[in-house]
Amino acid sequence: MNRHQFEITSWSAAELAARIRARDVSPSEAVEAALARIEACNPRVNAVCTVAADQAMTAARAAERLLERDQPLPPLLGVPVGIKDITPTAGIRTTYGSPLCRDHVPAEDAEVVARLKAAGAIVIGKTNTPEFAAGANTVNPVFGATRNPWNPALSAGGSTGGGAAALATGMIALAQGTDLGGSLRNPAAFCGVVGLRPTPGVVPSAPNPAPWDTLQVDGPMARSAEDCWLALRAMAGLSRRTPVSTVMAQAADDTLAPALPRRIAYVADIAGYGIDPEIADCCRSAAFALRDAGCEVEEIELDLSAGHEVFLALRGAVIVSQLWPYLDRIEELGENLRGNVRYGLGVGTAQLAAAQHRRQALWQQVMALLERYPLLLTPCTPVLPFPVEQNYPDQIAGRPMRSYIDWVAPTFLLSLLGMPVASVPAGLGRSGLPIGLQILGAPFAERQVLSAAAAVQACRPVGLAPASGAGAAA
Fold it and tell me: Is residue 427 helix, strand or coil?
């Protein structure tokens, strides 16, 4: 790729959209630059599993015809976006990372894809995911493993690992993903980008094999909180295609709120399993740096470990619902997914009822806390990125894990609450790897959460990952 293309792919989504509206760069140039960046970077990280070059160029030419007309332009006109490979895209292969769907090409876009397109974004391709998004290390039998762009020997996290790695290397400007137990936040933390899990229903999930579920949501991922806000506004809104749909809180303007709440709480470890000291130091430092923005930051205790079994039970039921059409082919699924389905099939009615009651108690506990502290900050992951060949780490802060899922407890415990929560880079640790800080707000406080994320990024920037070739045009 040439220097001009490299520069285009290094711009934020907001800057790229503004330059396209100003006719400084064309949508075709933006798409060609993204395709060149994919060609240069994807072999190292394997983030984009299906490239939709022809469809993207067709969309770019249509965008250029819009620019010739004297009419309002959509906000993301010409901006390249990556769509997670479990989200249907009309005419573009959607495999779910599974051999069962290796050649599946949907006839219709998911609602969130249609909304991004309506906002002018151009789908550049599909981003890699574990099989049916079940796992926090992005590897599947169809496309293999996505590697961390900061160190390709390590995991990019999951399950929206392909989207995070593609963003961190400049292959796309925005990413769409899903989050059940941390699938937007965990890879964002590992790859040094921003991932937002919205309030359930703010972004409609359709089609959805478990349509009444509030545990898994669709949401945006980007290199900055401002870009995440742009993507969220394009994705959000009421929909007749899903029974779980609501309106995002309206603001007087389209920008992120300039003021943060007066009081913010920092929690060192909500799960009680321990945190790697490098992560703990970085996250605490980033949280308390918000004092410079006029906030009172107080470290408090908050134990949500009672939600561990709650999440396992509810997640088991959701996975069975999502995989219901394939239950007669369970032996053809990967080992990790088979185990999750079998666990879900073993969850009983009493277990589910108890989980719902305990989930309500956790929600009430945190809602009461948010009356005093409108935002809660806590580390996103308790471990640094681990070797990509491992399915999951075997210890946290030097202590063996009791369960393979312990290491994602800091994210899945917050999933239970049904509140907006983002992961934002807290900076680079001593290892030179990015570290993620979670920011939780009350239901529908997405704007406030991302405003705080923007404040963190302002004082703790991390930039593009080394695998992007930053500093020299390829």
Answer: strand
Assess whether 224 carries a catalytic annotation: no
Rounded Cα distance, 367 and 440, in Å: 11
pTM over 0.90, yes/no: yes
Q: How many helices (H) and strands (E) does the chain have?
A: 14, 17
Matching residue, tokens 């920037």: 461
The active-site residue out of 84, 117, 155, 423 is: 84
459, 380, 462: which is closest to 150 by C-alpha? 462
pLDDT tens track for 120-175 = 999 999 999 999 999 999 999 999 999 999 999 999 999 999 999 999 999 999 99
Residues of the chain with pLDDT under 50: 472-474
Give the ranges where 46-180 is alpha helix by DSSP (H).
Answer: 53-67, 111-118, 161-168
Given 98, 155, 183, 451, the catalytic residue: 183
| Cβ neighbours of 153 (radius 10 Å) | 11
Q: Is 245 a catalytic residue?
A: no
pLDDT at residue 257 in the model = 72
84 is annotated as an active-site residue: yes
**pLDDT, averaged across the chain:** 96
Of the candidates 155, 159, 415, 423, the residue annotated as catalytic is 159
Domains and CATH numbers, the chain: 3-468 (3.90.1300.10)
CA-CA distances (angstroms) from residue 316 to 337, 339, 355, 407? 11, 10, 12, 18
